[in-house]
Amino acid sequence: MRMPVSFLALYIQLLPIILDILQVYAWIVILYCLLSMAIGYQVLGPLTRLGIALYNVLGWLVEPALRPIQALLPNTGAFDFSPVILLLVVDMVIPWLLRVGLQALYAS
């Protein structure tokens, strides 16, 4: 079954936007991890309240994606590998799936 041309054109136009949003989300995850370490090691000094507030906002965005990954991974003590897995998924797996979907649309 052939896809309508308008759907394919829409997909092609939205793909770069979706990939850009994924890149922004990856940077949010990285900033969340860095703030977590900075708060844990108490290196923020007078900016601690601002850092904690920003950490809470970023946690609201990142934690829902981290929870299922944390449930699958074994407890490793002080280091949490779930942000690494999330970054791999956001930076590699999802863009690859989007591009494979585009190739499948072209093929059909």
UniProtKB/TrEMBL annotation:
Descriptive protein name: YggT family protein
Residues annotated as transmembrane: 12-35, 47-66, 78-98
Domain of life: Bacteria
UniProt KW keywords: Membrane, Transmembrane, Transmembrane helix
Family annotation (InterPro entries): CCB3/YggT
Record-level GO cellular component terms: membrane
